[in-house]
Design a protein that fits this description.
The protein has one helix and no strands. With 255 residues, it is mostly loops.
Length: 255
């Protein structure tokens, strides 16, 4: 009996040792370019500039402060990865999966992220100026104080997202959906928001100076104390819109 227990223990130890040996080479193989996959790996601070990681599996990996500058991440799986403070400037993220990723303070300047999935991601204070995110999915994402100046967001979905204090100055948001989003104190100055869906959104004290909201759905939105000076509201649906104290396009204050 004792011998059987000893053999079982030895086999278990061997299996654990083999697993440990396998995991270490996986990281090394990824870092030296022999593999594109390293799910769950600790790659914090990795230098991956200009790497071709098309279709890579990095789900759940620790990539905090990593540099992906100009890397190719088309169709990559980064779901649940930690990309806090990572440099993703000018990367290709077309159709990549970044759902529920931790991206606080990440840099995505001029990234090409059309149809990428950022749903549920934490993009607090992310620097996303001029990002191209047409058709992107950001439902339930946290973009509090994120910088999206001059971003291309046509047909993107932000349903239920948080955008408090975010900068969307001169953003292109044709047909985008912010249905039920919370975007209080957000700057939409000069944004092209024609046909945007803002149904039920919280937009208190947000700035829409010179924004184009033609044919937009503002129904049931709370735009109390918002600045709509010189904004275009032609044919916008204002059914049930709360405009208490808002500055209207003609500079009048709504009662």
């Amino acid at each position: 009996m004792f011998r059987l227990v000893a053999i079982a223990f030895a086999l278990t130890t061997l299996a654990q040792s083999s697993a440990a040996q396998l995991s270490a080479p996986d990281v090394a193989a990824f870092l030296d370019g022999r593999s594109k996959d390293c799910p769950g790996c600790n790659l914090a601070g990795a230098k991956l500039k200009r790497r071709d990681l098309t279709g890579a599996n990095l789900a759940g990996a620790n990539l905090a402060e990593a540099s992906f500058h100009r890397a190719l991440l088309r169709g990559a799986n980064l779901a649940g990865a930690d990309l806090s403070g990572a440099n993703l400037n000018k990367t290709s993220l077309l159709q990549a999966n970044l759902s529920h990723a931790k991206m606080k303070g990440a840099m995505l300047f001029e990234a090409e992220a059309g149809r990428a999935d950022f749903s549920g991601a934490d993009l607090t204070e992310a620097l996303m100026g001029s990002i191209r995110l047409a058709g992107g999915k950001l439902d339930g994402a946290n973009l509090t104080e994120a910088d999206l100046e001059a971003a291309e967001l046509n047909d993107a979905s932000f349903s239920g997202a948080r955008l408090d204090g975010a900068n969307l100055h001169q953003g292109r948001m044709l047909r985008a959906s912010l249905r039920g989003a919370v975007a209080n104190g957000t700057d939409f100055t000069g944004a092209n928001m024609r046909e945007v869906n803002l149904h039920g959104a919280a937009l208190r004290q947000s700035i829409f100076f010179l924004a184009d909201l033609g044919v937009a759905d503002l129904s049931a939105a709370d735009m109390s104390y918002a600045v709509l000076r010189s904004a275009n509201l032609t044919n916008a649906n204002q059914s049930g819109t709360v405009l208490t104290g808002a500055m209207m396009p003609d500079n009048s204050i709504h009662p």
